[in-house]
Amino acid sequence: MLASFRPTTIPDSPVPCPRFSPREGVPFIEKDRTHWYIKVLLPDVSRDEFCASIQGNQLLLNWRDNKQINYDGRVFESRERFERTIKLLDGISTDDIDIHWSDDTVVVSILKPEHHQ
To answer: Of 29, 100, 104, 116, which is least packed with CB atoms within 10 Å of its CB?
Structure first.
């Protein structure tokens, strides 16, 4: 089952960022002077099941989870696909993003264009 939400937009104005309060599968956006950071808590996703790409002016985040639930002596598995879309400024390319993991959280770093730093 493919789950999707309406696109999120990266804020351009200098608004204070609240602390990261993880909710599974929900992108959280932080920024500093040079980068935007999109953090997503994905506890049941392996690193090779996550992909981030740029299409036009949108960042596409795709993953497949692998939940295992023990119930009444049986193990049930869920392998569901998810996609999130985040609207970006024009001029950002795949070369401007970096992906790294911190425990169960994926962090996508996006270099801001020169005129936004």
So the answer is: 100
**What's the first-to-final CA gap in the chain, in angstroms?**
39
Residue 12 contacts residue 31 (beta carbons within 8 Å): no
pLDDT tens-digit series, residues 56-104: 889 999 999 888 888 899 988 888 899 999 998 888 888 899 999 999 9
- Alpha-carbon distance of 27 to 62, in angstroms, equals 12
How far apart (Å, rounded) are the C-alpha atoms in residues 36 and 34?
7
pTM of the predicted model, to two decimals? Answer: 0.73
Domains of the chain listed by start with CATH number = 35-116 (2.60.40.790)
Say how many residues make up the chain.
117
Return the sign of the alpha-carbon dihedral for residues 22, 95, 47, 81.
Answer: positive
